[in-house]
Amino acid sequence: MSLVRFDPWSFMGISEPNLDRNWVPAVDIEEHDEHFIVRADVPGVAADEIDISLEAGVLSISGERQTQRSEEHHGMARFERVSGRFNRRFKLPRDVDAEQVTAASANGILEVTIPKQAALKPRRITVQAA
Q1: Read out DSSP for 57-71?
Q2: Residue 43: pLDDT above 50?
Q3: Average pLDDT value for the chain
Q4: Considering 19, 50, 104, 122, which has the largest number of Cβ atoms within 10 A of its Cβ?
Q5: More confident residue, 66 or 50
């Protein structure tokens, strides 16, 4: 048997300590032959409010989500949607093409496509007789 502490106000959202804390969007990273794809769950964040940068091999994704809460509560209230600033950073391999990175946001999902540099293939050099 486990004991659970009863908090009569927790259902009302009054004693929840994590209101307005910073949040961390969930991220998936896929590697394909020619590119990487980074997908981040950013519901409620407009595309123009997301900052993406790639510097010294580090991809940074940051932004802020704000939730609307009225100051007056008539009846019960519970707040679980976290808001605040977020910042995710990822070290990328050396073979990415930083100049060709693209990003798009739709339905609360940010998708960053990071192409790999073309592999250097050995080149055969023909020797001509002089």
Answers
A1: TEEEEEEEE-----S
A2: yes
A3: 82
A4: 50
A5: 50
Q: Which residue in the block uniquely carries the two structure tokens 């900052």?
A: 51
Mean pLDDT of 67-79: 71
Q: How far apart are alpha carbons 86 and 11 in whole angstroms?
A: 27
Parallel, antiparallel, or unpaired for β 58-65 and 50-55?
antiparallel
Q: Which residues have C-beta within 8 Å of that of residue 110, sequence separation ≥ 6?
A: 25, 38, 39, 40, 42, 45, 47, 50, 61, 103, 104
Number of CB atoms found within 10 A of residue 83's CB: 19
The rounded distance, in Å, linking the Cα atoms of 60 and 50 is 10
Q: Which run of H or of E encompasses 30?
A: strand 27-31
Q: Are 37 and 113 a contacting pair, CB within 8 Å?
A: yes
Tens of pLDDT, residue by residue over 55-67, are: 999 999 999 998 7
- Is the confidence at residue 28, as pLDDT, over 50? yes
